[in-house]
From TrEMBL:
Keywords: Cytoplasm, Repressor, Translation regulation. It is found in: Cytoplasm. GO terms for molecular function: ribosomal large subunit binding. The keyword Acetylation does not apply. Functions as a ribosomal silencing factor. Interacts with ribosomal protein uL14 (rplN), blocking formation of intersubunit bridge B8. Prevents association of the 30S and 50S ribosomal subunits and the formation of functional ribosomes, thus repressing translation. Its main location: cytoplasm. This is Ribosomal silencing factor RsfS. InterPro entries: Iojap/RsfS/C7orf30, NT_sf. It holds the Pfam family RsfS. It comes from Hydrogenovibrio thermophilus.
Amino acid sequence: MMDLQQMEDLIVSTLEDSKARDIQVLDVAGLCSFTDRMVVATGTSTTHVKSTGNALAQAFKDAGEPPIGVEAGPEPDWVLVDLGGAVVHIMTESARAHYQLEKLWNIKPGEASEKSSVNA
């Protein structure tokens, strides 16, 4: 069974490999009861968002830790991958700007650790 740090490392490396941008790992352990980490990343298109979500789900299946759930529509501007200890949101730039999850979770500047700023 993966610990939280191993989970976080696999999430970030998979998102980076998939060329996701502006990856943010938020520690929400004290803010909610259903997960310890919230990860937010940006995809460049609905196709990129969907393929990145699929790559993340596959990486965890390959590691023997399949996701609890993956939610996405047919032309998704947002894919959610629930890994139990972490919930990953991969969104188009417009969806991310609209929903502003970092603000929703009231994360103050400096509390979220930016793991990558890969530009595609």
